[in-house]
């Protein structure tokens, strides 16, 4: 049985300067209630590992506008001019990583691998100081693992033990990030009793999940 | 016909039935308008869907069903949604037949630059580097020139997206194939003279004796 906490309780757990993985693709499949709580709590100096930084004041863009970020590791910041401005002004350090490499670096971190070899980015400026490793006459780039203090996820459904199901394109980075955060907090759209999610339909097993964000109260019994 | 439509129609005719195709944001996205459903072409979007369909009716959008540009989409019968690791496994692993991407510059080696203008525009590469490195065929769909300045150049001045040679360049003026020995002019747009194409290209072009007009379907 997992504990269902409020977004505010989640924000209290996360200190200034923490390294966060945040699921989502331009805000689709992002844990918006946790993001709002982090903004309200006035968090500072966070490092965010995510596909992108959303749009201005939407998704991770809310953290950008609140000046909560010191560093961003992402594949794309083009949909948020405020992140680009912060980068140019030197307020936010931005590390741009090809999207597939970003996913694999997170997977390496969460799956106990020492890194991954990819052709993506070979002989480009994105390779920067990455090592090139030759295998059977072919060059590969070594991409290092990524881990986080907290992984903040969105899910479509959770059950009481924290098993997660994602929906459609809101899946994106959420399942892989579930493996790479020291503490994993999931914000599901609904929480259902154990048994309603068939074992075959579980996308992320509850053993990876530490906390669920409690339901948004509409119905009062 | 607008320059965009010429490019989109010509790229559409390049796609083979039953293939998996990723269309980049912007001009390449519009290629889908010219693909008849009976050709059985499946579209991938790298945020996690194989079998992307057209925009849903007004008011019927699903907030959890979007493309890599954030636009609302639908899913065709037989579609599958996947997470980011599998999505890029499809791209890098040789399972994606074609990627169609925009370009800022392409050079005589067939190298593409399309993700950054240092000091001016730093959006990030998103999925572009994986797509160019991993797709079986890479088709560049772009205007031949930008404000009169050639985009097909001897050597890219902007940072490269990949060190791989792209498969085909389709512009509003021409179809150009990068080969081991350089760029070969394959087709010209309707009514466009070879001399006009050569004049709008700063890269060296090999011009065969006969350069047919594009078939725009």
TrEMBL record, chain A:
Keywords from the named record: Transferase
GO molecular function annotation: CoA-transferase activity
InterPro entries cross-referenced by the UniProt entry: 3-oxoacid_CoA-transf_A, CoA_trans_fam_I, CoA_transf_BS, NagB/RpiA_transferase-like
PROSITE patterns assigned to the protein according to its UniProt record, in alphabetical order: COA_TRANSF_1 (PS01273)
Pfam families: CoA_trans
NCBIfam families reported for this sequence: pcaI_scoA_fam (TIGR02429)
Organism, scientific name: Rhodoblastus acidophilus (Rhodopseudomonas acidophila)
Parts forming coiled coils: none
Family from the record: Belongs to the 3-oxoacid CoA-transferase subunit A family.
Organism classification: Bacteria, Pseudomonadati, Pseudomonadota, Alphaproteobacteria, Hyphomicrobiales
SMART domains, per database record: CoA_trans (SM00882)
Protein's recorded name: 3-oxoacid CoA-transferase subunit A
From TrEMBL, chain B:
SMART domains per record: CoA_trans
InterPro entries: 3-oxoacid_CoA-transf_B (IPR012791), CoA_trans_fam_I (IPR004165), CoA_transf_AS (IPR004164), NagB/RpiA_transferase-like (IPR037171)
UniProt keyword Glycosyltransferase, yes or no: no
Molecular-function annotations in GO: CoA-transferase activity
A Pfam entry, by short name: CoA_trans
Keywords: Transferase
Family statement drawn from the similarity comment of this UniProt entry: Belongs to the 3-oxoacid CoA-transferase subunit B family.
NCBIfam families: pcaJ_scoB_fam
Protein name: 3-oxoacid CoA-transferase subunit B
Source organism: Rhodoblastus acidophilus (Rhodopseudomonas acidophila)
